[in-house]
Amino acid sequence: MLNPDTPDDQERLDHLHRYLVLDTPPEAEFDRITRFVKPLLRVPVVIISLVAAQRAWLKSTVGTNIHEMDRDSNCCGEAIKQYGVFVVEDLLATPRFQDDPMVKYEGARSYAGAPLTTPDGYNIGVLAVYDHRPRSFTPEEQAFLQDLAAIVIDELELRLAMLQAKEAQVRSEYLAHHDALTGLPNRLMLLDRAKQALLHAQRHGTPVGMLVLDLDAFKTVNDSLGHAVGDELLKAVGKRLCTVLRSEDTVARFGGDEFVILLPELRDALDAARVAQGLQDALAHPFEVDGFTLDMRCSVGISLYPTDGQDAEALLLAADTAMYQAKAAGKRQYRFYAQDMTRAAQAKLHLRGQLSRAVDTGEFELHYQPLVDLATGAIIGMEALVRWREANGRLISPATFIPLAEETGLIVPLGAWVLREACTQAVRWQVAGHPDLVVAVNVSVRQWEEATFVPLVQQILLETGLSPSRLVLEITESVLLSEPVEARRQAEQLASLGVRVALDDYGTGYSNLSQLQHLPIAQLKLDRTFVHPLPGGVRDQALVQSALTLGQALDAAVVAEGIETDTQLQVLRSLACPVGQGYFLGRPVPASEFALQHLQP
């Protein structure tokens, strides 16, 4: 047996640790053995001890509550050095073991221990007995202990074999569903997840995206630097791709330099384009692999369920086709399976990038449309409407950029700029001799929901010097009435400042009259869909009249939007509509033109 005091004891410890039993609870199988030994050898204490580097761990005990001992002070530490059973007939007569806890605390006088010997010949522990009286142990009793010690080892070997079999099964299952090189899901796992994602999409009507990503010029890396470097690069690429994706997305490797990404529960095609762009941006940063700095680009093909395929295989084929189209277009490109979707998504992504820069660089301007007293024809105010003028002078339609600003959250800083600029311009006109003009400003859902919105309004009024009674904030019905309690609180706060709140697009389907009567609304803006049919029939005019009557009951002025003809104007006048707005009365124009057209003496 190897001397445990030499460096070779490490080999013994390695064999002990491979059984994985030191940090586990006591073994039930061992308890049966210790209980069996006690009556047959007529001893009060039986232990199964596993001897580590410094401690002896008792994995089963009968007759004692001790569960660990110092290796050098107890008998088991000596027993593992023996080839056969180690016997001490009188422990008190042996100074070497005076500090054995069994001697000190349990009154043990004699000891017999059979080493637990592994199939490789390493003693990792002891099956031992203690008696309270000095005694010798017969050859038959010692042989009995050795036989049982062999059974303990058999139990450990069986346990180890079962653990290894389980690990092998887990490993086999893992390899069946994962790429051996990168550890990413493989084709089998991706198809399984795609099946689940498509079932969910069928129930909930959400798109699913499938992206095929191929590395550009990867073959050059393999050919010039070798496959070992290529393999490390593929691992690094896989890790970096994972950092871009959501937890519910799946990135898989199908072999070679081809990766496939499954995107469940998308909102629209733009989501897939955004991911494709993000993947390309992530790979644009150089990779450091085995001392080489490698620049890597990729081509991405995108397909969408349900437009491009009804199952995973069809989506894969479509995305693969799109990927080859992307490669043909040049490096670092992505393409949708349908070309028109590629152009639309790219244009929208480009526009979003431009929008972010435009907020920072001040490319926006305000145009003003007059609000007219229909009885007198006098200008009583104006609505401020934001416009985006590109560097080339081209105006981008608000219908294009406002929804995008809402989606990205840029509407909050943009809306704050609009409010401040409109109030500033209104004060300029007041100073120029038009003190009674009101200015109306649209407020988005995102702005209204900001906790800082009311303080922002108050701050801007103080900064610009505009009288609060000259400011009208236009909110859509859906914003005011979806959260009526919060809307009422916020509207009351604004009213307490003296600011008027207008209900924009009135009559488009959200109104609840019982809620309206509790909101401090100063204005109802009648949607253009009510004005457009005029003069129309009796029903058309009756609808407008009902809105006017409601406005009077709520003490709110009614503003008719979208007046485009003299006939519409005359009908509204006959119905005693107080205020109107529309192209017939004046188009939105920059501040300088507004002053020339409407504010001349």
Name its key features.
alpha/beta; single chain; Rev_trsase/Diguanyl_cyclase; six-stranded antiparallel β-sheet; EAL domain-containing protein; Beta-Lactamase; Alpha-Beta Plaits; Nucleotide_cyclase; GGDEF_dom; TIM Barrel
What does this structure look like?
The chain starts with 8 loop residues before the first helix and ends with a helix. The protein is α/β, with parallel strands linked by helices and 601 residues long. The chain has an eight-stranded mixed beta barrel with strand order 14-15-17-18-19-20-21-22, surrounded by four helices. It has a six-stranded antiparallel beta sheet with strand order 3-2-1-6-5-4. A five-stranded mixed beta sheet has the order 8-9-7-12-13, sandwiched between helices. Helix 21 (566-574) links the parallel strand 21 and strand 22. 47% of the residues lie in helices and 22% in strands. It has three domains: 9-165, GAF domain (Beta-Lactamase, 2-Layer Sandwich), CATH 3.30.450.40; 187-349, 2-Layer Sandwich (Alpha-Beta Plaits); 362-595, EAL domain (TIM Barrel, Alpha-Beta Barrel), CATH 3.20.20.450. Residues 348-601 form the EAL domain. This is EAL domain-containing protein.
